[in-house]
Amino acid sequence: MTEKLIVFYNGKFMQEKNVQISPNDRGFVFGDGVYEVFRSYNGKLFYADEHIKRLQYSLSQLRIEINQMDQIIPVVHQLLEKNDLRKKEATIYVQITRGVYKRMHAFPDEKVDPTIFIRAREFTPNPYSFFKKGVKAITLEDFRWSRCDIKSVALLSNILSAQQAADCDAYESIFIRNGLLLEGSHTNVFAVMNGQLYTHPESNYILSGISREIVIHLCKKYNLSVIEEAIHEKQIPQVEELFLAGTSTEIMPVVYLNNADIGTGNVGPLTRRIQDYYRNFIEEYLERI
């Protein structure tokens, strides 16, 4: 923890070390809350409105109501300024929980103010070699709950899966449910078979990633076929290319899955094209704002 890092907590700016969370906060007790993470490039927010829209969706699914949604972006800009992040890459973390109340499973029977925490912190991207040479991933049987479309702070299953990947010296774990590839512990997954790009369709079993939406948009823009259809684990030997997409991950090639190469074991041509399209998209977006 950076000692002088300034954060926003329940209406006030303060040093992160001075934030005090109540032991009765429902986010602490139950994981009763949601979060969102987005990027800042040299002080410019990337796709912030889309992230806030997804945050609103998650809040609506938990029936958490806040009146300060329009204050989040101005607060983020202040945090970038206060933490000297205007000329650096940063990640923005927003967490909102139902608030502080006595421990009971049902919602509080009286009005409770949600807990709002926002942090901007310097971000170091993945090593360039990862993007150039690709990474390793593993598959795991999906043992999460069935509302993965909610970006909940209750991430124990994702943590365990990410740790299992780390134990295997892999970058990511990819979930499989009923034989179908879903998504990673913190990424969406795209596969190339017979020159066609596949990704799992939006459903309650995956988080609809912002980067996923951008990839689909780019494919349509550049006349690349993208099929929103899950592939079966039995089809993995037929996969020619595989890549992950995420806010901090961007477009990450997977060249080794479990104990076998993907395709030739090298980053494929379609993945390379999408990497270039994605990076150009970011640069063009930032130039417009």
CATH superfamily of the largest domain: D-amino Acid Aminotransferase, subunit A, domain 2
What kind of sheet is the major sheet?
9 strands, mixed
Kindly state the number of beta strands. 15
Strand content: 25-35%
Instruction: Kindly report the average pLDDT value.
Output: 97
* N- to C-terminal distance: 31 Å
Helix vs. strand class: alpha+beta
- The name of the CATH architecture of the largest domain is Alpha-Beta Barrel
- Using the coordinates above, name the CATH class of the largest domain: Alpha Beta
Provide structural commentary:
The chain has two domains: 6-122, D-amino Acid Aminotransferase, Chain A, domain 1; 128-288, D-amino Acid Aminotransferase, Chain A, domain 2 (Alpha-Beta Barrel), CATH 3.20.10. It is 28% helix and 29% strand. The chain is built from seven helices and 15 strands. The protein has helices at residues 26-30, 48-62, 72-82, 128-133, 156-167, 210-221, 269-288; strands at residues 6-9, 12-15, 33-41, 44-46, 89-97, 115-122, 135-141, 172-177, 180-184, 188-193, 196-199, 226-228, 241-246, 250-257, 260-261. The strands form two sheets. Strands 7, 8, 9, 10, 11, 12, 13, 14 and 15 form a nine-stranded mixed β-sheet that branches. The protein starts with 5 loop residues before the first strand and ends with a helix.
